[in-house]
Amino acid sequence: MRLTLRTLLAYLDDVLEPNAAREIGAKLGESPVAASLVERIKDVLKRRRIGTPDVTGPGSKPNANLVAEYLDNTLVGNDVEEIERICLDSDVHLAEVAACHKILTLVLGEPVEVARSTRERMYALGAVMPSEQASGKSVAAPVSQNGSEQVLNLSQPTVLPKELARSRSQAPLWIGALVLIVFGAWIGLVINDHGLLDFLGSGDADSALAVNDDGNGAPDSAADEAFDDDAGADGAGAEGDNLEVDANGDIELPSNMGVAESATTLTDEQINPPPPDDLSADGTTDEVEMDGDGESAVVVTDVPVIDSQETVIAEPGILEEPADIVVVSPGDEESPAVVSGSGVQVLYDSHEDVLLHLNQLADPPGWFVLARNSVIRDGQSIACPEPFEAQLLVSGAMCRIDLIGGTRLRSVGSIAANGFEFELERGGIVIRHTGGPDDPSANCGLRVAGELMQFKLFPGAILGVQVDRLPPTGRETDTVLVPMTMLTAFIPQGHCVLTAANGVALDLAPEVNGLVTWHSQTGLFVPQNLQAPDWYAALIGERTRAAQQTATRYEEMFLIDQPIESTIPTIVRHDEPRFVEFAVETLGLIGDYAQLARALDSDKETAILAAGREISIWLPLDPENGARLHDELERNVREMSDVDILEVLLWGYDTADAQRTNVSETLVEWLLHDNLAVRLLAFEQIRRFTGVTQNYQPNAPLRHREISTDNWREHLRRNGGALIAP
Question: What SS3 state is found at 131?
Fold first, then answer.
C-alpha cells in the first residue's frame, strides 16, 4: 500500500480495507515524517479560524473542479502533483481538502432517504406530453398575453401521471406478498438484513409499474431504468447497485462516486489510479518519495528514475514503495530535483516559529513562509528571522541542524557518503551528530565567502558555527569589492575535524581548538580562549516565558500565502519597538534594500538604527548596490541634500578617518542635523570609535543636543581636533 496524501485521508476516514489499514498503521509507526503529517491533518481540521482559500486572486489556486477530480480519483498527471504540493504547503488548503474528503465519506456512506410523496411530486412537476417526449423537444413555460411567464401554482393539487396513479392500487398487494416472503426467508436463514427489506419494499413496486409511451402496458426499458435508479437511491440497495467486484475480489467504485461509503473499503488501486496509457516510459512525471525511516527521497521533475537493476516509472500522485510522504515547497529552482543518490535529504522539522524560503516560481519571485515538514531542495535559499529558531533534520547523514534567528543559508546538495553542503551566508547554526557510538561520521560542507570548509563530525559531536558580515569602513577602500566575513567555530562536545579550503586539517575538541575564528581577508583559522559565544548560549538555553510570548505574537503577523515583501513593511510602523526591530531585520535578511531605505525616513529610532546596520552589510555584496541605494534614497529622503550625507554614513569610516580633523568635526556637527537619521548614524560612528556618549540623545530637544554637542567639541579639542588622537 503506497503512502500518498489520498491514502492518508482514506486511512483517517476509515475507508481502507483492514489489511491495508494495518499496513498503513505500521508504516506510520516507522516514519516520523508521515506520522507528523497525520497529526498535522488532525490539527488543521480542529483549528478554529483557519480560514478558507481565496476564491479569486493569486491565492485562489487550485481550481475547485480539479480538487473535485482529485477527491474523485480521476485526476492524473501534473495536476495531482500540483494539488498535493499546494495542500502540503498550506494549512488552509490542506484543511479544505481533508474536510471535503471527510464530508464526502460521511454523506456518501449513508443512503439517502427520499419520501414517497416527495418523489411523486417531483414526477408530477416534471411530466411532459408523450408526443413532446418522443420528439425530444423541451417544454417551454406558458407565456401570458403580456409576454411574461406564468408561474405555476404549486399549492393546487397536481394530477399524477397514469402510471403513478395506477401504482397506488397495485402496490399494497405486491408489497404484502413480498413482505411475507422476505419475513419467511429471514426466519429460515436467521439473517438480519434491513437493506434487503427496504429493497423489496420500495424498489419492486416501482419497477413493476413502468409502461411505454403508447400506453399498452408493455414494459418500457427507459422507464425501468429510471425507476430502478430511484429504488437504489431510496433504499440501502444503493450499495449493491453502485459497486462492482473485479476478478481479484476488490471493490471497484464508479469514477463519479467521489469518496466511498463508510461501510466500503478501498483498495490501493482505487485510491491511487494507475497512470494513463499514453504515459511516457521515461518516467517524466513529478513525484516525491521517502522510505519508511525517512532516509531516502526522490523528487523527480522531468528526470527519469533509474535504478542499478531496473527502471521504475513513477506514477502520478503516487509515492513508490518503499516510500514515505515528504513535503516540497517551491524554492530556488536552479536545481529543481533532489536526487537521493547518497540517501541524504534535508527536512524542515520545526513545529513552531517561522522559516522563510525564496520562491522563484512566484510572480514576481519573493520570500514566503515555508510550510512545516517541507523538504529543502538543492539550490533553495532559506532564512530564519529574529527572534525565531528552526530545526533541520538531515536524514541519511545522521545530523540535526538548529538555526538561530538572523540566519540565511542556501542548500547546495549532497556530498560524498553521509554528507551534505550548505552555503552559510550569515547567522549561526548548531550541528549535532544524532547517530549512535558505532555509527559512521557525518560530513558537512559549509561554503563561507566563497570558501568551502569541510567538517567531519564523529558520533556525539556538537558543533556551532557563526558567520558575521562585517560592515564596510569606507567607500573608496579595496575591501568594498570583497565583503568582509568572519567565521567562528565552537565545539562544546565531542570531536570534529575541520578541513579548510587550502587542504589544511584542524582537529576541533573542547580540550584543543575548542573555539577558532576565521577571517575572509586572511584566510587563517586562529584559536581563541574557550568560552561559549553568546549566540550559542542563547540557542541551547530555554526561552523565557516573555520571549516565547513575543515570538508567538510576531509569528502571528506572518501570512503563509502572502509574500514577506508585502506584509513585513507594515510592521515597521508598529508601536512596539521590538517588533519594529524584528521587521527591519527581517527585511535586511531577505535583502529588501528598497524597504530598508524607506525605513531610514521613519520617526522611530529603532527602525533607523536597524535599517542602517542592514544596509551597511548589504552594500559590499555587489558593486552595483551603491547605485541602487542612491536611487532609493533619492526616492525616499525628503531633502535631496541629505542623500549624500546618508550615503557616506552608511558606507562607514575606518580608524584613519577618525584620526582626521575634518572627518571628526563633520561627524560632531551632524549631531545637530535636522534629519533624525543623520543624527543617529553619525552618533553611532562616533560612539564606535570613542566608546563614550557624552550624554547625547539623538531624539532629545534641540537645547539638550546643543549641550552634548559642546561636550563633543571639547573632546575634539583635547585630542588635537580628532575623535581619536593620532
Answer: helix
